[in-house]
Amino acid sequence: MNSKRKNKTPSELGLKKFVKPPVPPLFAGIAAAVFIITAILAGCGGKNDPGAQAILVGTSNDYPPICYLDADGNLTGFEKAVLDAVDEKLPQYSFKYEVLEFKNILASLEAGRLDIAAHNYTITEERLEKYLFSEEGYLSSYVYIVVPGDVNDVTNFDDLRGKRVSVPPASDWAYAVESYNARHQDTPILIDYFEGTPDVLITNLLTGVVDATLLHESDVKLANTFWGTSFKIVGEPIGDMEEARYVFRKESGELRQAVDQALRELKASGELAAITKKAVDDFFANAAR
């Protein structure tokens, strides 16, 4: 715990905008305790056959610009934009969306209540035992160690040994820390499995309740933009570049093959890159209003 920041309030620490952002909370999985709407939303694909098979996609609304609700309460973001484009190329299917808490998406897929899980998922050995992943990825990013701006003694995982690091349970980030601890059992990183709201995570990091967290670069930008923090990325990326993929049940090979083909076409035409840019640009443009 950082004694210099302990017992200080967010305002004393220079947190100039300690309120909820004008869109739902940040960070995949971290906002699992936020009030989540569970609703089935129709896809917007306009080229589906009249007898198209309904495909239920599970996602959340707590991770802008990946997936969130717009000002009218409609599901939007990069995740849905890509899937809508995929849906347009697959007339035999009609995509619909169910908004769930992050922690319940894969469980619902495994139970047969969903056909596709979409939440910036990356491959892990544990997940491969249970699910199929799309062969085509659709979003690449790195994960980094993130600390308050005044912290200068952390540059890599080794510097975190004996320190407390906040990560959402059952996440790729938790897996990274757990794997490190398995190799360094003498002085492990202290894991804080966090399931609260982003404002609590921010307070914990600023006040020294935890020393660091793991986030994507876009998450740091969002935190600094909406809460006025000065969080910074330190060191090299944690592991290889992560490539997000869609997740399917083991018996859904035909559906996976169709989605992969659509993704390949979107990449080849340049549409996927355009969708990525527009989703990010739209989010920050609307949030700035």
Structural commentary:
Strand 3 and strand 4 form a beta hairpin. The chain has 8 helices and 16 strands. The strands form 4 sheets. It has a 6-stranded mixed β-sheet with strand order 1-6-2-7-16-8, sandwiched between helices. A 5-stranded mixed β-sheet has the order 12-11-13-10-14. The protein folds into 2 domains: 40-140 and 243-287, Periplasmic binding protein-like II (D-Maltodextrin-Binding Protein, domain 2); 141-234, D-Maltodextrin-Binding Protein, domain 2 (3-Layer(aba) Sandwich). Residues 7-40 have low confidence and may be disordered. Helices cover 32% and strands 20% of the residues. The radius of gyration is 19 Å and the shape is globular. The relative contact order is 0.20. The protein starts with 39 loop residues before the first strand and ends with a helix. The longest helix is centred in the last third of the chain and has 17 residues, at 253-269. It is of the alpha/beta class.
User: How many strand units?
Assistant: 16
> In the CATH hierarchy, what is the architecture of the largest domain at level 2?
3-Layer(aba) Sandwich
Q: Which superfamily, in CATH terms, is the homologous superfamily of the largest domain?
A: Periplasmic binding protein-like II
Topology-level CATH name of the largest domain: D-Maltodextrin-Binding Protein, domain 2
| Percent range of helical residues | 25-40%
Overall pLDDT level: 82
| Helical/strand content category | alpha/beta
CA radius of gyration is: 19 Å
Largest sheet: 6 strands, mixed
Strand fraction band?
15-25%
Order of strands across the widest beta sheet?
1-6-2-7-16-8
Report the total helices: 8
Low-confidence stretches: 7-40
Distance between the termini: 37 Å
What is the CATH top level name of the largest domain? Answer: Alpha Beta
Question: Which geometry do the CA atoms define?
Answer: globular
How many domain modules?
A: 2
String of helices and strands: EEEEEHEHEHEEEEHEHEHEEEHH
